[in-house]
Write a structure and sequence with these properties.
The protein is α/β, with parallel strands linked by helices. The protein has 11 helices and 10 strands. The strands form 2 sheets. A 5-stranded mixed sheet has the order 3-2-1-4-5, with helices on both faces. Strands 8-7-6-9-10 form a 5-stranded mixed sheet, with helices on both faces. α4 (about 115-120) crosses α11 and α6 (about 185-190) crosses α8 (about 240-265). The protein is globular, with a radius of gyration of 20 Å.
Length: about 350
Amino acid sequence: MSEKEIIMAVETSCDETAVAVLENGQKLLSNLVSSQIKIHQKFGGVVPEIASRHHLEQVNRLIELALKEADVTFQQLSAIAVTYGPGLVGALLVGVSTAKALAYSLNLPLVGVNHIEGHIYANWLVHGNIEFPLVCLIVSGGHTALVEMRGHGDYLLLGQTQDDAAGEAFDKVARAMGLDYPGGPLVDVLSHEGDGKAVKLPRSWMGKDSCDFSFSGLKTSVLNYLNKAAQKGEKVNKADLAASFQESVVEVLVEKTIKAVKKRGLKTVLMAGGVSANSLLRERMKGRCQEEQINLYYPPLEYCTDNAAMISKAAHYHYIKGERSGWDLNAISRLKLY
């Protein structure tokens, strides 16, 4: 075992196989991602069985490449970290089984990490001056929530989606519009060509003081708009529809976040998850935070989507607190964080 703290992390929660090596919680020695987007595109979404098979094919290769790029041997590692949920159970099992086998054979500590917590800690990969307490907007394909973070690993749920996650709504609307997979980024790109006020779409505020979200009604409104246009033989301006849909989602995400921060008397906002890469969300959140004199942090684009660097960073904080996982660690598809 090395005198330095060197953590290798494995991430296989969905359709990205990823491995990273982090030194002393600060220096990222390697960060490799093997994407399956092209494989799943023809199906219009992730096929769990296919995802699992490709993880099996890629994970050991990426481990070898990550160690080589980091110029580190197995014997120099301090711990093995792995995402154990939430996610696709078959995909998760590939990473968990691999990490457990490595940790056991090398007699190294095993650190299980919640995937959502990993997204939050992507911020700490690039921002070293984040002060607690703060409000974190977690917004991804499977999760949309507002969480108060009072310290490392200390979470208080303020509100969450009562139906579709924001990213899920993006993907479903994109599919209905005939866009490719993954749909969220394509809606973002297309929206730049459209008028966000062209199509009147609802905003779900869930009550005056609520920090909860709901996007199913908005999704249904878009589907109804498309169906009515089809019945009348009218051509839909997809750019206008994409822009209007995105405006509706972003307005609710931003205003609820600002309201939550002010309600809790705090001064810092973090954004985390794949949808935090959305250009309009970044622009509007930045503008509103400046208006309200609120500190805002979000990760670079390469750390917004699934990666193992974020898992290694989250694992670092568990590791220094002496938190370890047992050999009974298992994949939990609906793992909770808050």
